[in-house]
Design a protein that fits this description.
It holds the Pfam family GAF. This protein is of the alpha+beta class and 168 residues long. The protein has 5 helices and 6 strands, in the order H-H-E-E-E-H-E-H-E-E-H. The model has no long low-confidence stretch (mean pLDDT 96).
């Protein structure tokens, strides 16, 4: 297993995440709708809005998973936030970064992962909108385009919620 690298702008990224004041907050109906939409469109059992903090990934919205968070050092999303494009793992058992990851070998048995970085307007990638399946699968450019559009809607909503907190 390979631990996720740290983004070059990690300090700014973490400050941006904390400034949004979204960590450890109550569910948001609009974000939940976007997560449910992604799960439905891509026909996956798990879809998440994952915010990547310094040592954990916390799930702001989730479909098909009971966990509230996981450690960052085993997260797929920790890898995804270091990419500019959608990060895809077609078959985690055949990927040297993940084949022995406890999220792959354990009870969850992740095989497929696609995560679109949630890019804040300042360029920081604060987390992902991600899709998970228990079977390997393919993910094409058209799929990536759709996921990217929905991820942009997620960021827009997170920024709007942060502004509302500032003015309340």
């Amino acid at each position: 297993m390979k631990n996720p690298p740290l983004p070059d702008n990690e300090a700014l990224r973490l400050q941006t995440l904390h400034d949004l004041k979204a960590l450890d907050t109550l569910p948001d109906a609009e974000l939940d709708r976007l997560t449910e939409f992604a799960a439905h469109v891509f026909n996956v059992p798990i879809a998440l809005i994952s915010l990547v903090d310094s040592d954990r990934q916390w799930f702001k919205s989730k479909v098909g998973l009971d966990a509230e968070q996981t450690h960052r050092d085993i997260s797929f999303c920790g890898h995804a936030i270091c990419q500019d494009e959608v990060f895809v793992v077609d078959n985690a058992l055949k990927d040297e970064r993940f084949f022995d990851n406890p999220l792959v070998t354990g009870e969850l048995s992740i095989r497929f992962y696609a995560g679109c970085p949630l890019r804040h307007p300042n360029g920081s990638q604060i987390g992902t909108l991600c899709l998970i399946d228990f079977e390997p699968r393919e993910f094409n450019d058209h799929d990536a385009s759709i996921l990217t559009q929905v991820a942009a809607d997620v960021v827009e909503r997170l920024v709007k919620l942060a502004r509302q907190q500032t003015f309340s």
